[in-house]
Write a structure and sequence with these properties.
By secondary structure, the chain is an alpha+beta fold. The chain is 39% helix and 19% strand. Strand 10 and strand 11 (152-156) form a beta hairpin. Helix 8 (316-329) packs across helix 9 and helix 17 (481-494) packs across helix 20. The longest helix has 28 residues, at 541-568. The chain starts with 5 loop residues before the first strand and ends with a helix.
Length: 569
């Protein structure tokens, strides 16, 4: 048998699937998206196309000296948030509900932009509900509110949406003023999520969300916001959402999730051409083009020019993409004083803006939403999301995660004064006041560790902007992070303490634990490495400082309790 290889092409009919070729030993020998070409030795192979957990497979053989025919796989019937034909989650009554909402007059709360939100359950679950269980199942479509400002609820979907739980859907179509809105989902006992919705003049933004069973499988269901579909259509467009647009969006979304531009040229051309009917395709295409080893700058400028004309240059994602182009072309020139106040739709856009804000303290204006949510970002696929701020989520501060019994344990001394310190809301602006707070907190039980902490902390005036790395090292060196982490885990079993920590604090805790272990092992830490870690936290320095301050207070409170327990044990 010859050792020569033959070129093989595998493609899936709809072009919207991840492709793999597996050899006879079930090892993946080639991967791609939409279409895949590989050089294969003679043997038996399997072509596999997968989308959203659905799989299409086909066996094929490569014979010595025989040119193989192309391997063509049928479209994968996958789960789609949009009720489209030829998907595994399509129902005519869901299609009719969306089409009717778009055709009928919208709820008028402004003018110039529109929003459609569709929630649906494509399973047979709605038809299996008894009269007794239906009310709890109906709660699956509750909890969404649209905010215009920090505390201004503009749309309560629980009261204004058309909800038909018997058929498994809820839908609302509203006309609003162009501008920035925030969509919150909140239900008792579940982590709340917020997502930005910048609405552009003369466009309808369509958001399709599936409600699904969580890990516990109990009612009510919860929305899958990470895998939702967002589309845009010209204002007043009453037709059903385009299947072509959705499939193109899925190709781009899956590629962006992988962090590399793997779409075929014809797919990229389709994304760029169809952006005039759905600008979101242009935003996704621009981010994919930026992933190329050598981005095509002329093409990107054309795309951004078109997107700016359609959405406006102030649209947050457009502003982020323009900033990135300027950084690539003029890396040594600072931005021209531009600020961004409202967050973008896409996480990739946010990463560009957040990296700039970490270098330029004024890039996110004071009291802007960008600054206030910068340390609360959560994973949500390609879409930006965060834990809602306490003022709108109905929650409290960091230390609210400690139960009342934990804070008021019988072993505490000087309880009233300590609780008063824990409840402080002032926002100190320098390192000295940070450590004074911990000093006051720890005063009743100044054990050796805390005395060392205070001695090192107060040895010099530290400012948050210039010496954050030094603050991180001092926190790591002086507090018992192994026991603090263990106590946080214990508390988290009793209540959702972790959800009350910001995303920045959640990344700081394991880093502080690791740094402490390295220090205890006698390693000589390179301050440059610590500074690099601090720089990698993409938030304004003042925001990072606030997170360090609040984390020091929480850790100080827990260390205080641990030390008292050990002493009195």
């Amino acid at each position: 048998m010859s050792d020569s290889k033959a070129p093989v092409r595998v493609e899936v009919a709809d072009g919207a699937a991840t492709l793999e070729i597996l050899d006879g030993g079930f090892q993946v020998v080639a991967q791609g998206f939409g279409r895949l070409e590989a050089e294969l030795a003679p043997g038996l192979y399997k072509a596999r196309a997968s989308v959203g957990g659905a799989v299409q497979e086909q066996l094929f053989a490569v014979e010595d000296g025989v040119p193989p025919a192309p391997v063509r796989l049928a479209p994968v019937r996958f789960a789609s948030p949009v009720p489209l034909a030829d998907t595994s989650t399509s129902h005519e009554y869901h299609q009719e509900a969306v089409a009717r909402a778009l055709h009928d007059a919208p709820l008028v709360l402004g003018g110039g932009a529109r929003l459609l939100l569709s929630l649906r359950d494509p399973s047979d679950r709605p038809f299996r509900q008894s009269p007794a269980s239906l009310p709890e199942y109906a709660r699956s479509y509750e909890g969404f509110k649209l905010y215009r400002g920090p505390d201004q609820i503009l749309v309560d979907f629980d009261h204004l949406a058309r909800r038909v739980p018997e058929l498994g859907y809820a839908v609302l179509h509203a006309e609003l003023d162009p501008g920035g809105y925030v969509l919150h989902w909140m239900q008792p006992g579940r982590p709340a999520v917020a997502r930005p919705l910048p609405l552009a003049a003369n466009w309808t933004t369509l958001m399709f969300v599936l409600v699904e069973a969580g890990g516990e499988g109990a009612l009510p269901l919860r929305p899958n916001l990470a895998d939702c579909s967002v589309q845009m259509a010209p204002l007043g467009y009453a037709g059903y959402p385009s299947e072509r647009y959705f499939r193109l969006t899925e190709i781009a979304r899956q590629s962006l999730l992988q962090g590399r531009n793997i779409v075929e040229r014809e797919v990229m051309n389709a994304l760029l051409g169809d952006k005039f009917g759905n600008p979101l395709l242009g935003l996704l295409a621009a981010h994919l083009l930026l992933l190329d080893a050598e981005p095509r700058m002329n093409l990107l400028h054309i795309v951004l020019g078109n997107l700016g004309a359609m959405l406006g240059d102030d649209f947050p994602d457009v502003a982020a993409l323009r900033l990135r182009l300027r950084q690539i072309e003029h890396p040594d020139q600072p931005p021209s004083g531009r600020q961004v106040a409202f967050p973008p739709l896409l996480r990739a856009s946010w990463d560009i803006l957040a990296a700039q804000a970490a270098r330029d303290e004024e890039f996110f204006p004071a009291d802007s939403l960008c600054r206030r949510m910068a340390d609360r970002v959560v994973d949500n696929g390609v879409w930006l999301a965060w834990r809602p701020l306490p003022s709108t989520a109905g929650g409290g501060g960091l230390l609210d995660g400690l139960s009342d019994d934990e804070l008021q344990g019988k072993k505490w001394r000087d309880r009233e004064r300590i609780l008063d310190l824990l409840g402080r809301t002032d926002r100190e602006s320098d390192g000295v006041n940070l450590f004074k707070s911990v000093k006051n907190l720890a005063k009743p039980v100044l054990r050796e560790q805390l005395r060392q902490f205070l001695k090192s902390a107060l040895s010099e005036q530290l400012t948050p902007r210039d010496q954050l790395g030094e603050l991180v090292l001092r926190l790591a060196r002086t507090l018992p992070w192994e026991r603090i982490v263990a106590r946080l885990n214990e508390l988290d079993e009793q209540g959702d303490v972790a959800a009350r920590l910001s995303s920045v604090q959640q990344s700081l805790i394991p880093a502080l634990l690791l740094l402490r272990q390295q220090l205890q092992s006698g390693l000589d830490l390179d301050h440059t490495q610590v500074e690099r870690f601090v720089a990698g936290i993409q938030v304004p320095k003042s925001v990072l400082f606030d997170n360090l301050r609040d984390l020091a207070r929480l850790a100080g409170a827990l260390a205080l309790r641990i030390i008292e327990e050990e002493r009195d044990g």
